[in-house]
Specification:
heterodimer, A: 214 residues, mainly alpha, B: 203 residues, two-stranded antiparallel ribbon
Chain lengths: 214, 203
């Protein structure tokens, strides 16, 4: 690949280095991924960790940070493999298999590197990392970036924004569930059912952002 | 344990969605219409049956240290197959299920059955289990989609049930994202209520 094309590839929205960078498009991607099409509350991606790790605020923050990090890495890996390996070889139908292998090995790699070089961070994020391989939000963001024909730069921005949106939903939910512990919930609704009802109420609130897209 | 018992446990007693709360992402996302729910159920069921079969067949060949990556590759292969077949023969359904077809790979039901059942059981038992879980998943999705489609568009599988006065002004929120969460909350609550009533005591 011609290295001089790199800046234009970074900015391109179509995956080919012809369309330029636009601040409006960038903002639309960020606001869209965090609020309008929030990964959890409107796209239904990453529901399992959303319900599983939202019982306490600090673990929710840890999970959110791990997801943002892995999403950005997985997007980088999957974009590069898709556009520089699968497309030139004409084997784009192997996309799903390739992406899941990339994500699984990246998560494993991150876990080993963290364990070796930053035990403190490993202590904080370590228990969340194995769960992330089967987090559909990670594979979801990688596939969406390809479907939307984002360039590498936009893909990374989209991935980080999606991760922030996920973290936002997770942290809000954890805050609500910590208070729910003290609330007089009917016995049959305790646990998951009330969590779903609360998520529904949050989702209604996020529906209000739909107008932002213009 | 008899094969019939392996089959029927997935439908009610260990229903993957209502009982074990697995596979939530596709469940909430595609149940806005019965047609999508059926399509997703059949697609995921097909992957489940094929991967359970292969995992049970290869259970003595796959080294236990690398079993999870092996399962993921097996599952991803069948998902790619489903993706290509649906794209060729059912392009409309393929478009409306969209991103959730490749995401069958990370459906916890499928990996869960491979790891929790197929790798320590015989091929016929694994097949019966997969068939039951697939039917249970599809059944759960159709139940949910029935509620959402009738409330949200007044139709069932595209047939207008409630007449045009309703379908012109339906309870739209049922087919939007919040409707999925809220209905799921009530359905899970309903199952808890049945359990609590059986056990006695307060609801």
């Amino acid at each position: 690949m011609n290295p001089f094309l790199l800046p234009t590839i970074l900015a391109s929205t179509s995956g080919t280095p012809d369309s330029g960078f636009s601040f409006g498009a960038l903002m639309a991607i960020i606001i869209g991924a965090i609020f309008i099409n929030n990964f959890v509350l409107s796209r239904f991606l990453g529901i399992c960790p959303f319900l599983g790790v939202s019982k306490q605020l600090d673990s929710a923050v840890g999970m959110g940070a791990a997801v943002i990090f892995v999403m950005a890495l997985a997007t980088l890996g999957s974009w590069v493999v898709y556009h520089l390996l699968l497309v030139p070889l004409g084997i784009t139908y192997l996309r799903t298999i390739a992406f899941i292998i990339i994500i699984a090995s990246l998560v494993q790699l991150v876990e080993m590197i963290l364990q070796k070089f930053s035990p403190a961070l490993y202590q904080a994020l370590g228990i969340f990392l194995p769960l992330i391989t089967t987090n559909c939000a990670i594979l979801g963001v990688a596939v969406l970036n390809i479907d939307e024909k984002f360039g590498l730069g936009y893909s990374l921005v989209h991935a980080v924004a999606a991760g922030i949106g996920f973290t936002l939903a997770l942290v809000l939910m954890a805050g609500l569930r910590e208070r729910l512990d003290q609330a007089p919930v009917p016995r049959s609704l305790r646990g998951l059912p009330i969590a779903f009802l609360v998520a529904g109420a949050m989702s209604i609130a996020f529906l209000g952002f739909a107008g932002l897209g213009g | 344990m008899s094969l019939t018992r392996e089959f029927t446990k997935g439908i009610y007693k260990e229903n993957p969605v209502f009982r074990l709360a697995l596979g939530m992402c596709p469940f909430l996302a595609v149940t806005s219409s019965v047609e999508n729910a059926l399509g997703m159920g059949v697609a995921a069921g097909f992957v489940l049956i094929c991967s359970n079969f292969l995992v049970a067949l290869l259970r003595s060949v796959i080294p236990s240290k690398v079993r999870i990556p092996c399962y993921i590759v097996i599952i991803a292969t069948f998902v790619t197959l489903v993706d290509l077949i649906m794209n060729a023969y059912l392009p409309d359904l393929h478009r409306s299920l969209g991103i959730f077809i490749p995401l069958i790979v990370v459906n916890c039901i499928i990996l869960g059955r491979a790891e929790g059942f197929a790798n320590r059981n015989t091929v016929p038992a694994a097949l019966a289990d997969a068939l039951g879980m697939g039917v249970g998943f599809t059944f759960a999705m159709v139940v949910m989609a029935t509620f959402r489609e009738i409330l949200g568009s007044g139709t069932w599988l595209g047939i207008n049930l409630l007449g045009s006065p309703y379908s012109n002004q339906p309870i739209l929120i049922a087919i939007l994202a919040p409707g999925a969460f809220i209905l799921m909350g009530f359905i899970l609550g309903f199952f808890n209520m049945i359990d609590n009533r059986r056990k006695g005591g307060a609801l």
